[in-house]
Design goal:
The complex is a heterotrimer. Chain A is α/β, with parallel strands linked by helices. Chain A folds into two domains: 168 residues, P-loop containing nucleotide triphosphate hydrolases (Rossmann fold), CATH 3.40.50; 54 residues, no CATH class. In chain A, a hairpin with a 2-residue loop joins β4 and β5. In chain A, α2 packs across α4 and α4 crosses α5. Chain B is mostly helical. Chain B has one domain. In chain B, α1 packs parallel to α5, α2 runs antiparallel to α3 and α9 runs parallel beside α11. Chain B has eleven helices and two strands; from the N terminus they run ααααββααααααα. A two-stranded antiparallel sheet of chain B has the order 1-2. Chain C has one domain: ABC transporter involved in vitamin B12 uptake, BtuC. A two-stranded antiparallel sheet of chain C has the order 1-2. Chain C is globular and about 55 Å long. The chains are: A alpha/beta, B mainly alpha, C mainly alpha. Chains in contact: A-C, B-C. At the B-C interface, α3, α4, α9 and α11 of B face α4, α9 and α11 of C.
């Protein structure tokens, strides 16, 4: 197993408070790594830093062994990484189909100007929508979808990006059991394809069910890591959760 | 003695901008968008003074207070019927800005229809605006009085803002209106009061401008823009930053007039704006 | 009949401007008030080249977009870091500086006297000096601009612009360098606006700085929002309505100055009412 994604002494502070505090973690290729911790422990901040949503203040991030000094979001495709958002961020006033098409069409603006979406693009997008049960809704605006459908569309965009590393930020939060089951299966299938997955989640059953490796954060620091079953019985972890 | 004369002009321009930026600051910090309808209150103040003092021949002091009341009312009502409605609907800043530009355009064209597009001069006789000799420089009586009155107002407002209970309430609302509401501050009422006060301050600016050189419908926007620039320059969250910004702009404008000629004066704020936005978007004084 | 030609020419010119404004503000969601500045740059480029150097207006239809595009490129690069309100303020600053320069640079722009005697376009032995022939020319340019706008809005580029308007931060994560897209659409919008300016200059043969003020940009806002923002058809509909409806004032016999102010007042109030009650406009699909 090799470390596909690694942080060393990573720091991010907001107004003097370290949201991520000298954090060093390894994410291994082809595994599902769970990321848990109490609210405000810096999980989402870490995801934001890894995806270039905000810039880190210190320390370093390595992608496949090479340091990526300034993480600029538009290079995510090159570095083969994508993410979902805990606070859903869809293109609300665009159709569900367009939400997917925009992910699979040309990035270069000059080429994009002369590109029309082809049958190939459409069929690719429709395949993805079928996978997340949104095919019937493809001509609706994304803003009109229900909460669960929006969550699924976020997953759909990730499938469309088709990158090696995927960061899921609470994809299950607030969903009904059948949709949870659906997303669990998608994530398992992604693992089968050899993707590397980071999963922020609160529900320990889901964590046990899916994760190969677990990282526990508290106050921006690494509290414990290891196999989920083992980590979840450690005293410090229990205290961090029960003390909440 | 040219330099002393320039200093006097800078002083006048600086206090006039300070007056406008204090009122604008209250509005900007509470509603968090650049509400250009404020420029409409400037116009309403000036034209109402013309109406009361020169057309209806009411005596000077009551005419001023009536005009201030109406310009305050103008901004208060615009907030009540347009902007607070939009804010409650969680409209984004685009919508608010577009509505405020539309409202200012409508206000200035209505005033233009009533009072004409030419400069409207409030003074009854031009000889009323006589010049004063101040240590070798000259200012007219309006400019001299404006400097004194506005300096007093700056002190009063600074005192209210930083030292009184009402000032603390205002700062709480400006800081985070939702939290302020949770601790029992009537947010809507404070907003209304701030809009009224802001409108009256803008109106006073209009009256001074109308007495000094006259007012045209376009001056609503023309005065609004430097005021926006000043609040960005001084940092939009700071009371004193605004006043420092006002004087910096006044100095830059008057020096431009000296070195390049009067016609370039209007471009100065925008050159400063673009420089400030590029170099230091948070303004001079950080809060 | 000549009157109808006149109105249709104005609609075509404003149709071009509204389409350009819509491309930048509607599709990409960049709140800009500099529309009038690029319109003015087009008009002044045509006027100066035609009166001082004897250029044919047809040639300036090529040169003006290049000039406006280069200026927009410079402005766009320096304004790239501003978003939302601050982008609006910066473009407002640019418009005011443009206006001041035009008023003061007497040797080139004629200062407050403006530039008179701009020739009508001519090609070979054909001169577009009758209202009808000018209308044909204006419509040709309008259709070219419509074609370009539809070409863009139906391309992948157009879809990306919409996504930038919806959520730029999210789009970046998916590997788009959004600043390049915004810069490109800003430049294209400026180039198209300048075409409207060239037509205006050679149609009314006299231009001065008063034609290119904030009020003109407000009118463009009103047009695209009334018609339905982010829709090419909406921009055209807005231009049609806001040119023809105020013409009715003429039949009530108001003096020119009052009619102008009334028109301005209508545009302003219209924006307020649209924001309050129908931010989607007539062809409503998107809202700000």
């Amino acid at each position: 197993m090799k470390n596909i994604l690694e942080t060393k002494e990573l720091i991010k502070s907001f107004g003097g408070v370290h949201a991520v505090d000298h954090l060093s973690v390894n994410i291994q290729e082809g595994q599902i790594t769970g990321l848990v911790g109490p609210n405000g422990s810096g999980k989402t901040t870490l995801i934001n830093l890894l995806s270039g949503f905000s810039l880190h203040d210190g320390g370093s991030v390595f992608f496949g062994g090479a340091e990526r000094k300034k993480i600029t979001p538009w290079e995510n495709q090159i570095y083969n990484i994508t993410r979902t958002f805990q606070q859903i961020k869809l293109f609300d006033q665009m159709s569900v189909l367009d939400n997917i098409l925009v992910i699979i069409t040309e990035r270069n603006p000059f080429l994009a100007l002369f590109e029309r979406h082809s049958k190939y693009h459409i069929s690719q997008a429709e395949d993805i929508l079928k996978q997340v049960d949104l095919f019937e809704k493809r001509f609706h605006n994304a803003g009109e979808l229900s909460y669960g459908q929006k969550k699924l569309l976020e997953i759909g965009r990730v499938l469309a990006m088709d990158t090696k590393i995927i960061l899921f930020d609470e994809p299950f939060a607030g969903l009904f059991p059948e949709i949870i089951k659906k997303i669990e299966n998608i994530i398992k299938a992604l693992k089968q394809e050899g993707k590397t997955i980071v999963l922020v989640e609160h529900n320990m059953n889901i964590i046990r069910n899916l994760c190969d490796h677990l990282i526990v954060m508290d106050a921006g620091k690494l509290l414990a890591e290891g196999h989920p079953e083992k980590v979840l019985t450690e005293r410090v972890v229990l205290e961090a959760y029960l003390g909440e | 003695m040219i330099t002393w004369q320039i200093i006097l002009y800078i002083l006048y321009a600086g206090v006039l901008y300070s007056l406008l930026v204090i009122g604008f600051g209250f509005i900007l910090r509470s509603v968090k968008f650049f509400n250009v309808a404020y420029g409409g209150a400037f116009l309403v103040g000036g034209y109402m003074m013309f109406l009361f003092y020169r057309v209806l021949v009411i005596s000077f002091i009551p005419a001023i207070f009536l005009s201030l009341f109406i310009s305050g009312l103008y901004l208060f009502l615009s907030h009540k019927f347009i902007f607070s409605f939009l804010i409650n609907r969680k409209a984004n800043n685009f919508v608010l800005l577009i509505a405020s530009f539309g409202f200012l355009t409508a206000t200035s064209s209505v005033l233009g229809m009533i009072f004409g597009s030419q400069a409207t001069i409030i003074a009854r006789r031009l000889s009323d605006i006589h010049s004063l000799n101040i240590f070798g420089g000259t200012l007219n009586i309006v400019e001299a009085l404006a400097i004194i009155i506005i300096f007093t107002l700056i002190c009063i407002f600074a005192f209210i803002y930083f030292k009184t209970h009402f000032g603390r309430v205002i700062r709480a609302v400006e800081d985070d209106s939702e939290v302020a509401e949770l601790v029992g501050i009537p947010k809507g009422k404070i907003f209304s009061q701030l809009f009224f006060i802001g409108g009256a301050l803008a109106g006073l600016g209009g009256i001074i401008q109308g007495l000094n050189v006259g007012i045209v419908p376009a001056s609503g926007l023309l005065f609004m823009l430097p005021v926006i620039v000043i609040s960005v320059l001084g940092g939009i969250r700071s009371f004193w930053g605004g006043i420092i910004g006002a004087f910096i702009l006044a100095i830059a404008q008057k020096l431009t007039v000296v070195f390049f000629g009067g016609s370039w004066e209007q471009a100065v704020p925008f050159v400063i704006l673009i420089i400030v936005l590029l170099v230091r978007p948070e303004g001079i004084l950080k809060k | 009949m000549e009157y109808i030609f006149h109105i249709t020419i104005l609609i075509s010119i404003y149709g071009i401007l509204a389409l350009a404004q819509n491309l930048v503000m509607g599709s990409a969601g960049l709140l800009t008030i500099a529309g009038a500045a690029f319109y003015g740059i087009g008009a002044y480029t045509a006027a100066i080249l035609a009166t001082a150097f004897g250029f044919n207006i047809f040639t300036t239809l090529i040169i003006a977009p290049i000039v406006a595009g280069l200026i927009a490129l410079g402005i766009g690069i320096s304004f790239a870091r501003f978003r939302d309100d601050y982008f609006l303020l910066a473009t407002l600053g640019f418009l005011m500086i443009f206006n001041t320069v035009v008023r003061n640079w007497e040797n080139v722009t004629g200062g407050s006297f403006g530039i008179a005697g701009i020739p009508k376009p001519h090609i070979f032995s054909l001169t577009f000096d009758t209202p009808f022939s000018f209308l044909v020319l204006a419509l040709i340019v309008l259709f070219i601009v419509i074609g370009i706008c539809y070409f863009i809005s139906r391309s992948s580029f157009g879809r990306v612009l919409n996504a930038i308007r919806e959520d730029e931060d999210a789009l970046k994560i998916f590997g788009y360098k959004t600043s390049t897209y915004k810069l490109m659409v800003f430049v294209i919008g400026a180039m198209l606006s300048s075409l409207g300016g060239v037509l205006l200059a050679s149609y009314i043969t006299f231009i001065d700085a008063n034609l290119f003020t904030v009020n003109e940009s407000i009118l463009l806002w009103a047009m695209i929002i009334l018609g339905g923002i982010a829709k090419n058809r909406g921009a055209l509909l807005g231009a049609l309505l806001l040119i023809t409806i105020p013409e009715a004032l003429r039949f009530f016999g108001f003096p020119n100055e009052i009619a102008g102010l009334m028109r301005q007042c209508i545009y302003g109030l219209l924006l307020v009412f649209l924001m309050l009650y129908r931010p989607k406009g007539i062809l409503g699909q998107y809202k700000l």
